[in-house]
Amino acid sequence: MRQLIWSFPARRDLYRIAAEYGEMDPALPFEMLMRIEQAPLALMDYPDIGSPTPRRGIRKWHVRRTPFLLFYASTTKRLEIRRVVHERSDWTGLEA
Known about the structure:
It is built from three helices and five strands. By secondary structure, it is α+β, with helices and mostly antiparallel strands.
């Protein structure tokens, strides 16, 4: 079974998302973060379902019912979420 790891940059992304969406509606960050944090569960069993990115070994996965993408790397022992990025942002180079 793979171990799920959230990198420091991904955790920082989550805090930023919570702060930004909290300004719009206090209940919104909870919903967004819950969806984002549950998204890797499908990737744990099927890590290749995400789309490849130009960076070797990094894939992306759209978080359902959110405007966010997870960038991740997977091995047989671990799934590391590298970044959480808005789908409309310029994520080129951020997937590291």
